[in-house]
Amino acid sequence: MLKVNSAALSVFMLGIFSMPLQAQFQLEKHDAGVRVMLNGQMMTDYLTAAPSPILWPLLGPDSVKLTRDFPMIADTEGEKRDHPHHRSLWFTHGLVNGTDFWHKGGKVNHREFTQLSDGPVAVIGSTNVWTKDEGEDVLTERRRMSFGAGENYRWIDFDIRLVAQFGDVHFGDTKEGAFAVRVAETMKVEARKGGKIVNSFGKKDLLAWRQPATWVNYTGPVCEKTYGIAMFSHPSSFGHPVRWHVRTYGLFAANPFGEKQFTGGYEEGPGVQLKQGEELSLHFRVVLHKEITDGETISKLYDEYAKQPVIQP
Question: Which pTM value belongs to this model?
């Protein structure tokens, strides 16, 4: 049974009651996964099919689409068809027990839903198993996704527990990972339409790549207005503050496992090893927002998130 102490519960409830009174979420289960509705309108679909579960599309304020359609839709006007493994919002890694789950070579298989809850904060809980192509199970992933909203933003919390259930697990040292978004085509910096990247230490655009940071904000125009996706790493998350595999062409990823390619090292690092029965936890927040381009506001939102207790899935 889940236990939350009274102080933690008070902080959590304060967060709920500080949200707009009209925020009400409803989950609609369907054959492909679960649809998340906010006040009667779609916010996203959690799609469970292999090669890995994804959230697509991600609809921000005004129901504006903030992630790329490709490869789920191949012919959206104006989109480049590069990196077909970049699937809206997803979580995998490029080297786990010798298998590349990031590109192709393994699958993250949805096994069951453990929680589906409506309300001012919606919750989707699930269990996934990472499996090599030849059928060998590598690890169990327990995931809890919470959905909430503020005045000009929406947020999704990801609490992820990776368990070495089937044997030892090794996460290799590679930049190809891990918790990732592919932003809308018009938002990317290389579109030269006003897209910008900035992190919690003030590093911008190209200079934000490979840097450790507590948060990164990727903003740009969509439908002639400025929207953005900010990603936060919770202080209790493994590897915090993580390095960011964030690129001007639109990839936006937090990587708690990579070192060599981020630091310019000439030798591969040891990676991360879990003995059978061991586990590690990751905690991220994704904020879908409208016109929050100043670091001060993002920092305040991050501080609110960093103070709240995490709930292990």
Answer: 0.91
